[in-house]
Structure formats: C-alpha cells, structure tokens
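Case study 2.
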Amino acid sequence: MPVAMESLDQKPFRLAPGRAAWWIPNPGRVARYPPIATLTSNHLPGTSAEDTRKLSFAAALKDLLQNLSFHCYSKLVESGRRIQERFFWFVFHITALSVLIAFLWGSYTNEQEVLVTTMYHPMYPIWKVEFPAISVCSLNRISQRAAWQYAHNLSGKDPKLRNASYFYDQLKAFMYMYYDPSDLMDIDNALRFQSFLDRFDTGEKDLFFNTRKRMRALTPNCSDMFVSCRIAGRLFNCMDKFETTLTSHGFCCTFNYDGKYVNKRDFRQRYFGPDMGLVLTLKTDPNDNFYKINGHNGYPDPFSGGVAERVAETGFNTLLPVRAKIFETLPEARSMSPSVRKCLFENEMPWIFARHYTFSKCISACRAQSVVSLCECVPFSLPHRYIDGCEKRIYCTLQHLACLKRYEFKWLNVITSRENVTGLEHELQDALYCPLCLASCTETRYSVRGAMTLGLPTPTPSQIKGPARSNPGPRANNSYGPALSSGSGRGPVHGSSSPAELAVVRIYFAETHIQYFRQIIKCAWYETFSTIGNICGIIAGFSLIGICELLFFLAKQLWQACRAELRAELAHIHVQIRTQVAEPETEAEAEAESERPMKLFILP
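Prediction:
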C-alpha cells in the first residue's frame, strides 16, 4: 500500500530540525527519500557507507555555532553574511568574553575573603562579659631571705666547707642572669658555680640541675605581697583566689586563671567602676630585695600578643580601666578549612592547648619549640604542654646562655606568613616563622587605656595608733593604719606599713556596654552561583543549557577522536598479523619449489 509523505524540502523553515547531535537520535544516519511525494515499499531509505559517515570537525563546529543556545554566535557562520559583518561579530564576541573574564576574576578575588565582620550588638551589657585573668608579679624576683637559706644549704653540701657568705655572694653574682641574660659580667665564674650546682644541688630523682624547682623556691611567696583583696565591693581571702602560675617573669600570683569569673553575673557584679572591680592592696618589703627584673624572657609574654603589662608603683593608687570587645565566628564556618577562613576555633588543637587555643598561646608555643630545637634546653618558665617529652629534657642553665643570646633577635620577631617587603629581606630570613598560628575565631579582646595613678593619703598618728575597725567595710583597701593580715583579707595586723611600701591597684571595666562583632559567611554557594550566572547571562548571554551543549560537543569530539585512533591502531595490528601469517606460507612454497627436479628447456 503506498504511503503518502510530504517532502522535507516543503516544510516551513521554523520547523526544520537542526543537524546537531543533541537534537536528533542518530546524527550519522541521514534518511534519503525520492524526490516524488509518494513513497512505496520499493523505495525504502538505504544505509550506505556514504549515509553513515560522520561530520568533520569543521562541519560539526559550524553546526554547533548555528544551533548553540548562546546569543548571536550563529552570526559567525550564517550564510549570506559578508566578511566585514563576520569580523564585526568576531570582535564583538572576543570583547564580550574579555569583559566576562575580567568581571569573573574580580568576583573571585572578592570571594577570597569568605568571612565578613558585622556589628552584632552595639550595646552588649558588660555583666555578660568574662573578667580577664590577672597576674601579680613582684619586681623582686628573688627573695633575700630565701637566698640566705639557699646559701646555708649549699654551704652544708660544699666539700671545701666554705661559709654561707661565699655562696650568697655567688648567688648575687649570677642568679639574676636567669631573668636578664643581657647583663652578662663574669661568665667564667658563673659557669664554674653552675658546675658546682650541677654536681651538688640535684635531687635523688634528678639527673640535672632543676632550674624550675630552684627558682620557685627562691621566688617571693604570694602571701608576702597581698594585704587585702576585694571584688564587686566584697572582701575575699587572697590566697583562696590567687594561685602560683608561670608567666613571662617566672612564677607569679594569678587571679581567675581557671576562668571562674566568666559566667553571667547580676547587675551588681558587673565589675564596672573603680570601686566595683578587682581592688588589690599590695605591699613590698625593701629589706627582702635581692634582684629586680628588667626584661622579658618567658612564656607567654607581651611580645606574643594578648597580654597587657602595667607597673604599679608603691605609694600610689593605680587605676587600670579595662575595655573589652567580643569577636565571634559562627559555627557554620567550621566546614571551611582553616587556611580559607584564616582563623582557628579554641578546640581545634586540643593536643597542645587543651581546648583553649588562642593566638598568643600558639606564638608562645612556637617560640618555645624553637628554643628547644636550637638550644636543646627548656626554659624554666615554659609550660610543659607546649613541648612533647619536656620532662626528659634539661632546663636551660648558664651553660646555654650563649645560645640563648645568639637567637634572641629571632625569637623577638615572629611572622605567620611570608611576604616580600622591600627593605626587610634580612629580617624576613632571621624572623621566627610560625605558619600554623592563626587568629582566634572567637575571642574577647581586652585593652587597658586611660590608666592613671593617684598618690595614697598619708595616715595620721591617730589612725596608726587608733583601735582596729571591727568591720573594714568597702573602704578597707584605703585604710593603712590597722591594716589587714597578710594575704587573708581578714583581721588586723600587729604593726603597720607606711604608704611608701603599699600600692593599691584597681582593675575594672571602664564601660557598661561594649561592642559585639560577629564573623559570618560572606556568600553561600547558591549566592555565588547566582552572581556568576547573572554576570555570564548579561554580558555574554551564557546559560546552563548552552554550557551543557558545549560540553557535550567537546566530549563527543574527544570520543570520536579516541575511537578513530583506536580503530587505526586495531587496523595496524590486523595488517601486522596478516603479514606474519603470509610469510610462513611463502617460505613453505619456496622450499617446495627447491625440492622439485630441475627442468631443462631447449629453445630452437
């Protein structure tokens, strides 16, 4: 039965399908029909080798540009266009692509800052802010009484039976070098005395001179420094709240070391104002002075950041107003790598900082590891958790003094990233490089600004000789006649201290409200995707469908090239096989021909 079918040439142009591979199922099989409009069973479409051949790359690329979803790319190959028009469209597309690349590069550089800081709360109440840790260190780092006692102990161990005065003079000559190695006088005598200590001043379980143990015994006790302590207008026992810890100056007395004063407090306990903060009355004993510090050589120290240092002079009332700012990074940023967000959360290095990471601690740990690596000793003021196997290493003594002085410049200059700065090449090479130390993602930053000192009032004879007050009240820290017992904050002291030997320190928050900042993710993935899509669509007319078409075209051309190469390789292998099979047959025929009897032809 004949089948009527309309010729393809008579179809409207808008319905003519393209020849691209993503519109027709079999791009290599083209149906050829007779020119007549009637098709019978005897004129079915054929599948000759010419029908099944593939398009060349140039023809396929032309077909792609004609049917691509991108705007105006068909103008480059459209028939009937003059060469000037095609050149114009070529320049137009090149310009559009250049502008597109410039915009995308600008977006990429802007997106490198993945976190942005915003104001979360401009008036955050101060009573919700944690109180900072406070360390009180005596400028007299070695007690004279402890030095005399140590001299008597050494005299009893001396085989030469030298008296205590000799050892006291030796201690006075070299012991200060542990705190200030720059004041080096008689190093030979100091090294000889250090050899004596290494031999005769070691414990039963010690293999070397324990500098930390000895320095702790020589440091003035905390109970000898405090007269009274008060916080939020209430007196408390100083020795119950202060504990001995390691600082840049050796062993000191630290308040709020374990963070007990970090929880939210009521309105009264917001520690605002000179009378409602931490008020300390300190005393000094000039007769017990042995050596006063004049430098920094410990961990953590003011050079590592996060530590503010102030000196409270005797005879004065020192006011230290503290201003705080809170910086918090949202937990969603944990999904990013630290190198991208450029900060670390407090629990990301628990094996070193016990879930309390700070930038200051990281710099101190990096410097400490450098000291151990270069000088092969552990400074006595270094916390053990900063160094693996610290208990098996010797503490730094005067034998390591030359090494410590050699690298002093290196440890005072720390960098976390290397950037070439003209004029600082030498410093860049000599500085300590700590690439693992990043800023803290969440922290409370404190600053001491506007500190001032006021002279203490001179007590009158009646105040000195008068009866002790039954209730010291909130002004107990300003009462210097019948002072409180040393370090207890309770009860009178028999005797008195002059204002020249006392110092009052007031540490308090200077503001009732602070600024609270938050770091949030600048752009989510869908926002970045939308930005790129808008730029590509407006400038070059790109779309996701067009990109898929382009990728399909490239993948198809690559597959065809690989398949053609594979077919050529297989054809070459088949030719070699046939050649190898034909060679033995030829050799066999030659051998058979040689075995036949010779034929003689006689020509007339």
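The first strand starts at residue 3 and ends at 4.
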